[in-house]
Amino acid sequence: MKKFYELEYVRPDLEVLKKNFENVIEKLDAAGTSEEAKEAILESEKLVSNLATQSTIAYIRNTMNTNDEFYDKEMEFYNNEIPKLIPVQKKYREALLNSKFRKSLEKDIGKQFFRLAEVEQKTQSEEIMDNLINEATLSTEYQKLAASCKTDFMGETCNFYGLLKYMEHTDREVRKQAYIEWAKLYENIAPELDKLYDKLIAERVCMAKKLGFDNYTSLAYLNMHRLDYTAENVENFRKQVLEIIVPFCTKLREQQAKRINVDRIKYYDEMFMYPEGNPNPSGKKENMLYSAKEMYSELSNETGEFFDFMYEHDLFDLETRPGKHLGGYCTNLADYRAPFIFSNFNGTSADVDVLTHEAGHAFEYYLASRNIKIDELCFSTSEINEIHSMTMEYFAYPWMDKFFGDKAEDYKYFHLSNSVLVIPYLVCVDEFQHRVFEKPDMTAMERRNVWRELEKKYMPWRDYDGVEFLEMGGFWMQKQHIFLYPFYYIDYALAQMGACEFYGRSKENKEAAWNDYLNLCRKGGSLGYFDLLKTSNLSNPFEEGSVEKAVKAVFNDIINGGDR
Ligand code: ZN
User: Fold this and answer.
1) What pLDDT was estimated at residue 52?
2) How far apart are the CA of 357 and the centre of ligand 1, in A?
3) Predicted TM-score (pTM) above 0.90
4) On the chain, which terminus has fewer CB atoms closer than 10 Å, C or N?
5) Which residue, 147, 146, 166, 148, is CA-closest to 156?
6) SS3 260
7) How far is CA 526 from the centre of its chain?
């Protein structure tokens, strides 16, 4: 494989692709043996893999520079044209599901492959092609709008990410002003965001109706490939969070107030954990990459080999730049079996989190894709994928002195506390979305009321210090997942349960925990959610009492480290 920037990009010819798909379907129908049928399936996988690789190259390059017109056009092309492949894909899946060799194919490739195909038959239809195109266009509009937001702060032109370092400033007044500036940026675009969200809701509800679902939530669950549980199970999980985690977090906030010497934690103090400032990594990006390389080579052979591969092929874009898409992600180039990591480094500890969290995702793909032929089965659903990434954050703890020097212990306490402190917010975002799609006709103001009500339930400590836009429920707008990835957010909370369990188990027996983790990564998405949990000896977070059990070791270490 070449280095990422040397990879050639060619726009796929979709007419040729459709013809090739038709050929595969014919082969699958005409197969005389299970082997022949499997060959046809692998051929179809190759077509999908080629297409995905080109569209991912375009996506990465587009997010690297949202002002580059070429890749902007390419993304427009995919947004408009990919949904038009639905009919031929549907026909292919029909042939697959009705294959007379299905039984032996299920044994060979795994049942999960067929379960997923069955779901996609229900969620994909020619009828919703227009809605999908509209949804993608609205999502792009949202991204452009958010990326265009800039403000001058302390003599610097800042986007949302640029403001972050001031939002953790040691001077409380600077933090406060930075948050006010940040809230203003959202308030300025709020009318447009409301309109965009209204339109996104309408498209989503319309798709659910056309496909025969009672509501969009049911469709969204299937879109997320949630085959093992329902919205009721999730409600029960949120209840456990409310009972076990929210009171603990409320206490942590009180401790935090004492530590940073304020009467009460205001919203601009929430991310501020130490009076002398949060631990920031020392050193430049190159040094950090080098430290990460050393860390992964010491952690295990598997991680060492993986990170060398990333390094050698330049599969990173880490620095923040104007015009670059916000946030961080890990994606994969299927044809090359290569992950790619994108982020916006800002000099805070979040940069290290990228090198552990996103690298955890990348590591999983690297391992699974060397173990599983079918690319689709290399990634699991996100309740599992986020276990890969969040657990890697914990496994990396012993190497944190490489990044934070003598602040390593502070960082670990900071990180461990935040892993828990964020959970109430995660379930808050989740319940908000359930409420939105229960009553999709709500006005923007009604939605804000719902958000504020839920904030009070899950984050009773939250104090906006009189900032009207936020007091009125404007905070939800900063969550891009609500716009772009509906119902994704609960998966972080579910996955955190698995990661916390790994944390506890690695304290008891590191080798056994690491082997279970490797095993989970290697299995990718070849099994369903519950089965993957079982094979790596993790609890099912929907079972009564599981949340308390999962967070026990983490709670203990936070309590013990609390007087630092
Ligand atoms: Zn992640």
Assistant:
1) 97
2) 6
3) yes
4) C
5) 166
6) coil
7) 19
